[in-house]
Amino acid sequence: MTTIAIETPSQGGTTDDASLTASFARQPILNRDGMLCGYEIKVRTPALPAVEADQRVPQADPDTQPDALPGRAPTPGQRVARATVHGLLQGDVRGALTGHPAYVDVNRELLLDDAILRLPPERFMLELPLSLEVDDALTARVVYLHGRRYRFALDDVAQPNETFAKLLPYAEVVKIDVMRAPRALLPKLASVLKSAGKLLLASGVDTQADFETAHELGFDRFQGYYFAHAQSSATRRVSAPRHALLNLLQLLAGDPTVAQLEAELKLNPVLVMHLMKLANSSGLAVGHKVTTLRDAINATGTDRIARWTQLLLYADGRKVALEDDPLLQLAATRARFMELAIERMPEAGRDEADAAFLTGVFSFVDAVFGGSLEKTLNILTLSRPIQAAILHREGRLGLLLSAVEALEGGAWERVATLCERLAPLTVEEVAQMGLAAGAWAGVADRSAEGLERIED
After folding, report:
1. What is the C-alpha to C-alpha distance for residues 108 and 126, in angstroms, rounded to an integer?
2. What is the average per-residue pLDDT within 231-255?
3. Could you tell me the pTM of the whole model?
4. Which numeric CATH code is attached to 230-456?
């Protein structure tokens, strides 16, 4: 998950809108093949004073689209809704989505405010919670938005209720919480909804067993971090032999010569192929085509080769674009976040930035190799501070690793608590860096700082 904090633009003539800050959290959504097909955007808005929170938003006329009545200041709910829409339209959010659609939680205020019409319907899926009060005004609004090609998902379904029945005709997707839904009800519910032509999204899928159960029931989409655990590694094809990547990483850790690197790479034709493509496709070779392995090493540089090898550990060997590979995206995002965050810390140098990147990229290397995480870290000959951060969350690197994990889980209070120990970092800065890291990971294959596409 990656996040961003956006300040509200002044709208509706109020002068204190900028005091409202919205943050967004990005969570991956996978298809039946285990590839990324979207992200859910979790919205965190500031708490309004009780008096303001009790004010109701005027009901919108579904046949008109005025942003606000002339001369009337927006209500607190409208201000929050407009802050949310403004944030979702920012370039950083679009970059972090890496071309995938966004699933966005919406409430009554956001649905009824005409600011929602600024969201491009082809890029957003609006998630309707079953806690919505479905009256005539809300139904009319959903019908109107549906006619404008906005798409809806019923969110957080554990068991059908009256709201579910009223909103189902307008929903394209039904998101079922597989941890909360009665196990005996799941097969029947899935069968009925599939027969009705609905796409089924299983949320809370954090283990391989949960994924397999939902997959067998015909679910189309999956949300959760099951793919980042060791038990799922057996289902992934590797992009290169793991032992070859480990040997190369161990060699790179010792500041090798070009001749040593060339000799090691020649033992692994798959790695040679990837490196040659990297050198020729990423703009590193200026003015001529790289034709020899030695030229490729010189053009790329050991630092970039090291990062390429580290991330290649996580790449699925199927012919997929890197921005669609959930495990590699998670590893790259976490590593880049760690690097960006440490650079904001007092007295942090280049060596600590490199250590931060390594901490992030190897923090779930057991998802690839299985077995003992400590044993794998020892094989990689990582430094003691890096191992302590990964295994025990110790030191400054351990705190930053805990912070990015909290972001991935949407644990905002936990992020705030950790920021108190990571001064001068603030929750807003951590959120901004999380989103920037996600955008960086999404274009790594098209950047001289990143990777090539992984191909058979």
Report:
1. 12
2. 66
3. 0.82
4. 1.10.3210
